[in-house]
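Worked example 2:
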Amino acid sequence: MSIEFFLTSLVVVLMPGTGVIYTLSVGLGRGFKASIAAAVGCTFGTVPAAVASIIGLAALLHTSALAFQAIKFLGVIYLFYMAWSILKDGGAMDVREERSPQSYSKIAVTGTLINVLNPKLSLFFLAFLPQFTSANSANVTNELAVLAIAFMVMTFIVFVGYGAFAASAREYIIKRPNVMKWIKTCFAGAFGFLGLKLAMAD
């Protein structure tokens, strides 16, 4: 693995996307431990895309409009659902000092679905990983697998950092409901925008 791979991967992971927004929202709404569950789910959600790319299934999404549109449609619906769930009372970002707990497994599953239902993620791995393989590699499959694992480890570490940052601001927000209302609107709008962006993807 080259320094170019790590630097490029870091830039990609740091870019605000659905996983980052979800982890931040959980960190603000539920605290640090819950944000770790979100980070685990979002990271695990990249596994199917990485595996699909390594064994060539991502090419199907690139050549089959029907397969791509089917997954894209489900992803768009789910992103709009996330936007709605953030705004509703008792949703993911309903910050209160006393509230009913939400299982970490449910938080992780939601994070996983956010990435699994994004067909562009498979195409990203298909285009991204091969750039950093050796031209004379004896086993390209193993090399791609190592790169994918390194990318996922980096994703988890960065997302935990995002979650820690969000959780550290939670106490401040609990005492300022107007600030939380504004943040919830921004996060819901971000999910809605990402849903629209995915809906227009070819």
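The chain has eleven helices and no strands. The chain has a mean pLDDT of 77.
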